[in-house]
Amino acid sequence: MRALINIASAVACAAILAGCASVYNLPGNAPLGAALADNNVGREVSAYDDDVLLALAFSGGGTRAAAFSFGVLNELERTRAGSSQTKSLLDRVDFVSGVSGGAVTAAYFGLKKRDALTDFRERFLLRNAEEALNTQISLGNIGRALGGGVNNSQFRDWLDRNLFDGARFDSFGDERRPRVWINASDIYNRTPFVFGKTAFDALCSDIRSYRISEAVAASAAVPLAFAPIVLETYPGGCQTQLPAWIERARRDPNAQPLLKSFADANARYHDGSMKYVKLLDGGLVDNYGLSGFSIGMLAAQRPFEPMTERQAVKVRRMMFVIVDAGRGISGDFAQRVEGPSGVELVSAAADTAIDASVRSSYAAFSTLVNDWTSRVKRWRCGLSAAERSRLGAGPGWRCGDVSVFIDRVSFERLGPARAGILNAIPTRFSLPAEQIDLLIEGGADALRGSGPYQAFRRRL
After folding, report:
1. Cα distance between residue 278 and residue 264, in whole Å
2. N or C: which end of the chain has fewer CB within 10 A?
3. Are 103 and 229 in contact, with CB atoms under 8 Å apart?
4. pTM of the predicted protein model
5. Three-class SS of residue 273?
6. In 186-229, which ranges are continuous DSSP H helix?
7. How far is the C-alpha of 206 from the C-alpha of 455, rounded, in Å?
8. CA nearest 55: which of 227, 307, 332, 248?
9. Cβ neighbours of residue 317 under 8 Å, at least 6 residues apart?
């Protein structure tokens, strides 16, 4: 009875504190303005000079995911391919997408390109990114959690000071290789939010001036631990129009659910029915970071998009690498009749939902990529001789000469012993150096041991 009284007292105190503490973030985005035509931050896709498409997706998982993904980048840098052997595969990455911890690596690589390899370990992986955060379990923090979130803008500000140096989306550069997708979750519309031109045009907001750190903080904003990142909508404040595919997807009863929910959300941003967009951890709806790729393919107005015409004619080999640093099975409650306890129950329920989601999303993504590749081939084979010449198809060009490789690179690739060690590393934003280096080495070895990746290399 005494224990029940203590629990009831704690809950009552927390409820009182929650009533007193309201934790929230102010919107960090600016209006686009009627004078600005659009949100281009460089060309939508790059001008390419090779026949390779290489896309990376980095999963969530705190610093563990950031370090494992960084190991994959290191392995790509060590791999030379092509006739000249002057460029590494790192230079040939076309798209990079990230969620939560993986978003940190994706954004920094997108910003710094190969220079990210020189200092990311020291500037982020070895640093304690939790140093400015409230992480203690206390009545005060329970009250803050119930009042909106324990932390508000601390993580964003830490990222700005220590990693991104205040960089904004226009810093991704005109060449746009790689194209970067940072993924969060719109918790009102229950759909992915992909930081990019489409969503910010719908908001009538200027993505060029938006801080990269804020997008990454949104992608990593674990519920209760962080208050949602907030964006303001500016309906009627610009001349942008919603793309035609959004209205078609909304009207089509057979539209893919992912595309339709994304289209509905963007329409609400644009028509003024939502004043604010509230964003939390991208892993809530997509812990592999595949939303940007999937929506780009599903929303394509032409069969080859999100590639350009010229790239679609030139491409011969495509590789999609999904880097999965997700946590494996843990806990011992399956060995006893009682349990899981309250904390274990919350953790197990969250892990079950995320794992079920990513398994189905990976299967759906594989099917989507294969269907898209078939459409690209049919489009290529339907080109006239004049069109082929205009787009740079040279002698010996074959319309069906397009191969696609897809693989999930995970701890499992390293064998049970190493996978067990890496799985035991917690999902934190502060890890000891020895664990960081195990993860970096593991990411490189896991990619090197990938059969589809080695097949892709042989076909270059």
Report:
1. 15
2. N
3. no
4. 0.89
5. coil
6. 197-203, 212-219
7. 42
8. 307
9. 51, 52, 53, 402, 403, 405, 456, 459, 460
